[in-house]
Every structure is written in structure tokens, then in C-alpha cells.
Amino acid sequence: MSISGSFRLVNARVIDGTGSAPVTGAELVAVDGRIAYVGPSRDQVSAEHRALPTVDARGRTVLPGFFDCHVHVALSIEDGLVAQFADAGSYAMLKTARRLRDTLDAGVTTIRDLGGLDNGFKRALADGLVTGPRANLAVGVISPTGGHVDFSLPNGHVPRPGADQVSYIADTDDQVLTAVRELVRSGADVIKVCTSGGVSSPTDQPDDMGVSERQVALIRAELDRHSRRRRIAAHAQGAAGILAAVRGGVDSVEHGYGISDEGVELMLEKGTFLVPTLSSALRVPDPDLVPPYLYEKKVRWSRIAREHIARALQAGVNVALGTDAGVCPHGRNLLELVHLVELGMSPGDAIVAGTRNSARLLGLDDELGTLEVGKTADLVAVTADPLADISSLADPANVELVLKAGKTVKDTAGLTTDVLDAIAA
User: Fold this and answer.
1) Are residues 114 and 137 in the same domain?
2) Is 82 left (phi over 0), alpha (psi -120 to 50) or beta?
């Protein structure tokens, strides 16, 4: 049993995602899935609001539903690379559905999947056929031949199924524009390009160049012809690839491990977002479980990322939360907050990165990202004070209540069940 869209939440401590100080003894009212009031508890409550089911938060901290702006829900390196290509399609789909549920249970109510999840899953989530966060999609990734998502084997064979659903290999300007149009046709909300090589790819390095600055600008011009503004996200790890991405006009730099002082200044000037994916960057795998090339690159680039991302955070670049889940474990998304704080961000600013800033990056800030009147009632509740202990959000077990558009999707503390039991009595 659960509440469904309209309720009055009392006795809460609200962190609203705007960066404002918490409000203790707070009250939040949602009507038809939208916030109608949030603020200090009121002595005078309208008859309409007083008649709503009342949820006692029992002093818990209530925050906006979080975002993860960089996931690969259809992928799990932990399952092994062979499984990515060997699983039957139906079995792979069911595993993806479970990962979506795990992500929602972690407190993430909106994701941006940057390669692998298709428009069918987005529709299934929106229609309630699958339980999980609402989804913003890249569908696939544009890369040059031999680039970051060119999965061709040394003999030229491309493993299938799987690789062809993600990789859009494009070298010439015409090929790049065709790939963009195909992705838009497939339902992409964001176009993802690889302007550098990567840590996990076997045939290139993060310092190698990928899609060029000029081609990024061509993509920007192509997307600007459409009435709906789609974002551009750049897989960019080395310093040169980051500069090419920002100069070309991307909205976000994904990873950004080797960002230079010049790159930081340019991002500040243009307002470009950084999605640092520290959950992946700082995680060095067991060398017995990955190829030698991958382990060696991870050791080197984890050190580089720690140093360079910390400088970018200190300089004040716009940061949105993203984990690269799929490369790192699913369902532990808010561990990213801990890493952001570890590298110098305050707990309050880390929370803003995972809520308001992420909504701004996705162009959803009119609807989501903060607990404000008129916005969709996505929220989570925890017993601990995340401003005093940000690590409390990293364990999904501590996320006791999750509401998506005002509807209960997780309630391990029985807060909303108690309400319905009282109504029934």
C-alpha cells in the first residue's frame, strides 16, 4: 500500500536542494503529484490540505529525489564482459529492469542513460510497465573508427548483439550528421560524442583525440535546427579532448579526468557542466578481474582524476552528479556525493550538484531538482543528517522513503503504510 499523489508530510527536516539552510519542523504538501506548500509547519492549514492523508516524517531529513546524469543501465562490468554479449535478449532486459529498480531504491528518481538503454525502456518507465527512475536517453554514442566505443576485435569482427546498439562509428562530417539524425529518430534526448579516447577502451588512450571540435560545432548547429533543444554530452577524459568539446559547444563534459587550467577557465566562461563520474574514476579494479591494459590505465588515471577534478571543484565549475554506473556498481549511486566531498566540495554543495544542478543540465529544472511550490513531488527521506554525514546517503538501506511524482515507490520505515492503516481504521 502507498500514498498516491496527494498528501501532507509533517514533522520533517527539509533540505530543498536550492542550497538554502535546512528547515526544521517543516511541512510539505503535494496535490496531484505537485508540491503545493513547503516550509515551516503552519498553525493555520486550509481545510483542503488538512483533509489530505498526513505522513509523519518523525524528524527525518527530506530531500529532493536525486539525479544520476551518467549511467549505463543496460551494462554491468561486474557481470563480466562475456555476459554482455552472451545473454539472451529477454534475460538481459530483465536484468536491466532490476538495475532500474535498484537505482530508484538508492534515491535516484531521474537518470540520464548515456548509451545502451533504448526508447522502449523509456516508454515502459513512463507508462509504469517497469519500475524505476524517469529516463533521459542518449540511446547510442558517436565515436570515430578506433575510438572509445569502437568494439571491433583485432580481426575486424564486431561482437553482437550489443555493440551495434550503442556504437555509432562516424569519421566524416556527413557520417557524423547522419549518426545524429539516426539518434534523434531513435528518441535520443541528448547526443553523446567521444572527443577523446578512454580508460576502458583497448585501442586508444584518454589523451587521444576523437570527434573534433569542428564536428562538435556541426552537431550543435544540426540540433539547433530542431524546435526541441537537445543537449550534447562529451565523453572527454584527456585535456585536449576536453578543450575540443567545450569549444565546440557541448553542454557537459563527462569524466574530465585530465582537465587543464585552460579547460577550467573555458568551462567557467561558457557555463559548461562537469559530470566527473568519480565513482568510476577513483575505483581501481582487482587486477585479476580485468585485462592488464585496463588495470594499468585505471591506476594512472585515477591519480590524475583525483588531482585535476579537485582543482576544477575548487575553481567552482558547474557540477552535476553522475557515476558511470555500469562501469561501477549499480544501486550505489549516491556514493558519488561522498567522493565529491572527499575532493573538496561541501556536503550542501554536493547535494545541490545531485539535485538542482543536475536538473539544470538536463533542462528539467522547471519541474524537478528542488522542493519548491509547483514542482513535481519527487523526494527521499533519511533518518541521518546528510549535512553532518554525507556518507549516510551512500547506503541504499538508509534511504527509507522514496516518492516519485508524489507516489510511494519505496517505504522501508512504513511511514505511508501507517497513514493508510489509520485511514482504514
Assistant:
1) yes
2) alpha
Rounded to an integer, what distance in angstroms lies between the CA atom of residue 215 and that of residue 319?
25
For residue 1, tell me if it sits in a domain. Answer: no
User: Per this entry, what is the length of the chain?
Assistant: 425
Name the 3-class secondary structure at 167: strand
Cα–Cα distance between 145 and 158 in angstroms, integer?
12
Distance CA 5, CA 188 (A): 29
279 and 233 part of one domain: yes
* H or E, element range at 164: helix 163-166
Determine the structural domain holding residue 24 and report its residue range: 7-65+370-424
Predicted TM-score (pTM) above 0.90: yes
What is d(CA 172, CA 180) in angstroms, rounded to the nearest whole number? 13
Q: How far is CA 12 from the centre of its chain?
A: 26
φ, ψ dihedrals at 393, nearest 5°: -80, -15
Say how far apart CA 85 and CA 151 lie, in whole Å. 12
pLDDT digits (tens, 9 = 90+) for 132-188: 999 999 999 999 999 998 877 666 666 554 444 689 999 999 999 999 999 999 999
Total count of domains within the chain = 2
104 & 215 share domain: yes
